[in-house]
Amino acid sequence: MNQTATTAASDPPLPIRGVSQGTREIWANGLWQGNPGLVQLLGLCPLLAVSNTAVNGLGLGLATLVVLVLSNCAVSLLRGQLAAEVRIPAFVLIIATLVTVVDLSLQAWLHDLSRTLGIFVPLIVTNCTLLARAEAFASRQPLLPALHDGLAQGLGFALVLIALGAGREMIGQGTLLADAELLFGAWASVLEIRVLPQGWGLLLATLPPGAFIGLGLLVALRQHLVSRKTQGRAAAKSAGQSA
Amino acid sequence: MRLPGHRLRAVVSIALVGLVAALILAGVDRLTRERIALERERQAQAALVQLLPEASFDNLPRQEAFELSPGPFGRPLPVYPARRGQELVALIADVTTPSGYSGDIRLLVAVDLAGQVMGVSVIEHRETPGLGDLIERRKSSWIDQFRGRSLDDPAPERWAADRRGGTFDTLTSATITSQAVIEAVRASLETLARHDPDPEPMP
Hints:
The complex is a heterodimer of chains A (243) and B (203).
Chain A lengths: L1 H9 L10 H13 L10 H7 L3 H24 L9 H23 L1 H7 L10 H9 L6 H31 L1 E2 L3 H5 L8 E2 L13 H35 L1
Helix pairs in contact in A: 2-8, 4-5, 4-7, 4-8, 5-6, 5-7, 8-10
Chain B lengths: L4 H47 L14 E3 L8 E8 L2 E14 L2 E10 L4 E8 L50 H20 L9
Antiparallel strand pairs in B: 1-2, 2-3, 3-4, 4-5
């Protein structure tokens, strides 16, 4: 935990224009420096379990995003009202309630979507990102930053899920965006792309070990990009000093 | 016993959060319960229509459901009778086999009065994407090979995947999945054959 915190702090901020400094930091943190999937390594249980196809990843990503935004807002509104000793159980209660509300509402009003997302929504309870954001951020911040943080962290998590799902699906099944019609309706079946001929996939990628290997590769890729960037900057700095 | 002030505050705040959570959940449950039941029923009915030609029956088979016991795999077998007018057209067995590659596979097996399979549909499974999930009709036509089969066609010992010396096609790299589905279909036929073909609908 400490390790990741220092790594996150030493990374340079992403240049995002048009938003205030604080908001920009929140977004850079959620998407890259403190990405819940790649840096904080939170929410591994749903992340590894549901990332076998791009569409599954997208489904869980969207569902998590919604619940994370709601829970951040609820916790932010309650900040200062809760006694410190019971804040964690209170957050757990809030998150569980929101997950159930979202689950029931999906089943009632978007039933076809809930048949696809149905298995993912209860999984969100096991995602520690929600509790971590509630404790580390939302409980100390006003509503608007908490909302931004929920969106940024949720989007960061969703992007990792989609990347991992797309990679595993391409290598394992040889397709991309298979079953998109389950999420977007009948027209979306045209989105499916066959990358490899039928039967050429490497089965390992779709099975659980493929999830661990794939996530490991993604984390390594991110670390590689970060270290190359810092090395490049250090080299430029020393070159500037010697000149 | 008197609680110190900060303890009291903790107890009150967690109790309040719990109370509000319970109220919200109760409210949402009341709001959604009926709609969810309705949607589930609609979905289940749609699965039946996939199995039998739409015009071939005019009742709501699931509302006349009954159970045959003992059923296959040590559980009672739910059966939905499809009727046209008063006349029985087919029995639909709702069978769940525990022998899938990754757990339960739930199938609907429609059987006509002569004991011939009219169609099989997979409703729930967790088989491997790209291999075992070809048992779904929208992914491959493998599941259609049961149409027209019955307990003596093929002979009982040939009710198996061809990899295991049977008559039926085996899905590539999914012998266990294939075998589980084949056995579930056969077990449903056997259970149906053991019982009266037209029991009275449950009151």
